């Protein structure tokens, strides 16, 4: 993989914005170089100062948990920012294309649309696994990215590891593995394989298992050349100081997070069983995530009946390969019980 050929010409030639902190990094008593408010901030702490553009303290803490070096780590304003930056850095509008594998996460297609980049869809097989022949056929010399979501949203299953490895070994562009739900999965993460595959990008997020969707913090792990391109293209201060402070604090509570993961997985298994026992439920798909996809007799009716009870789930019945399907996030034990009762009472 040649990073110079892979990135867009204008990005290769781009001189990134140089911040005040880029130009002077040392210790000093008086900083009069960034037009900040020298008197302070209405909040305590140092919120009158611009945050670290490369978030090194936070990356250091993440690195200790993930075992991935800082230089292989990119932080985004949600993983959605990393997805958008991958398009902007690597895909020439109206010329390059990317491959996505429906049914899958909607942001890949939206980001492609915003960036005017062609999308090539290769549907998953009926068992929601990769159609390797279809992917090979869809790829051409202008294909820059392939998005593989594992565990996949909205189906919940993990993608077979050897199939992902086949794509990684054969595709010349970047293979983006979206691991938003990896903490709930039996399957291993791909972040340990970064040294093996220069074209691998792994996305993870603080929005799901870490319980910090409101902070907007996502991670991309990749080989150094890919990370360097993302850092060059990102807005200089894309992660604000409050997010950096709060995420650092959250990382001290990993035991709590691991406890929630355990409970969620246990609830997922018992809720799956209970749902399968309902007459209206035709199929419960196995899940490696914190949600379950089910097929019911009448998806829209079921959805509307639950809304009447004040319970909101996701109607996925119009999505490719998901006819009649609903997606249900695992709630608290109490919430799941209420959901089951409500479903039992639908005609
Ligand atoms: C929820 C989700 C994300 C998270 O996006 P953030 O921008 O980090 O909140 C990413 N990918 C998938 C597949 C998701 O379901």
TrEMBL record:
The keyword Manganese does not apply. Pathway: Amino-acid biosynthesis; L-histidine biosynthesis; L-histidine from 5-phospho-alpha-D-ribose 1-diphosphate: step 7/9; Lipid metabolism. The modification N6-(pyridoxal phosphate)lysine is found at residue 208. Its cofactor is pyridoxal 5'-phosphate. It comes from the Bacteria. GO terms for biological process: L-histidine biosynthetic process. One of its GO terms (molecular function) is histidinol-phosphate transaminase activity. Homodimer. Belongs to the class-II pyridoxal-phosphate-dependent aminotransferase family. Histidinol-phosphate aminotransferase subfamily. This is Histidinol-phosphate aminotransferase. It comes from Pedobacter hiemivivus. The lineage of its organism: Bacteria, Pseudomonadati, Bacteroidota, Sphingobacteriia, Sphingobacteriales. The gene is hisC.
């Amino acid at each position: 993989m040649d990073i110079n050929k892979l990135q867009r010409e204008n990005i290769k030639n781009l001189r990134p914005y140089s911040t005040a902190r880029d130009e002077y990094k040392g210790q000093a008593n008086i900083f009069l170089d960034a037009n900040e408010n020298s008197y302070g901030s209405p909040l305590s702490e140092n919120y009158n100062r611009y945050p670290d553009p490369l978030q090194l303290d936070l990356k250091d803490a993440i690195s200790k948990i993930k075992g991935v070096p800082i230089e292989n780590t990119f932080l985004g304003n949600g993983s959605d920012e990393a997805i958008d930056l991958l398009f902007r850095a690597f895909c020439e509008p109206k010329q390059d294309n990317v491959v996505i594998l429906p049914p899958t996460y909607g942001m890949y297609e939206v980001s492609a649309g915003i960036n005017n980049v062609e999308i090539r869809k290769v549907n998953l097989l009926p068992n929601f696994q990769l159609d390797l022949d279809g992917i090979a056929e869809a790829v051409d010399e202008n294909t820059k990215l392939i998005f593989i979501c594992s565990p996949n949203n909205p189906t919940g299953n993990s993608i077979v590891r050897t199939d992902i490895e086949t794509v990684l070994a054969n595709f010349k562009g970047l293979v983006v593995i979206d691991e938003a739900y990896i903490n709930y999965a039996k399957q291993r993460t791909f972040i340990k394989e970064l040294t093996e595959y220069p074209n691998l990008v792994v996305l993870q997020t603080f929005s799901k298992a870490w319980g910090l969707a409101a902070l907007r913090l996502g991670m991309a792990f990749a080989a150094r050349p890919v990370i360097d391109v993302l850092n060059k293209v990102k807005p200089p201060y894309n992660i604000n100081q409050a997010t950096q402070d709060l995420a650092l604090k959250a990382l001290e509570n990993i035991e709590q997070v691991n406890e929630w993961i355990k409970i969620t997985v246990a609830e997922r298994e018992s809720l799956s069983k209970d749902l399968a026992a309902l007459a209206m439920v035709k199929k419960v798909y196995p899940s490696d995530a914190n949600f379950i996809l089910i097929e019911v007799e009448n998806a829209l009716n079921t959805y509307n009946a639950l809304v009447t009870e004040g319970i909101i789930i996701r109607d996925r019945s119009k999505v490719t390969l998901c006819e009649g399907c609903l997606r249900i996030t695992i709630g608290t034990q109490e919430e799941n019980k209420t959901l089951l009762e409500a479903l039992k009472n639908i005609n």
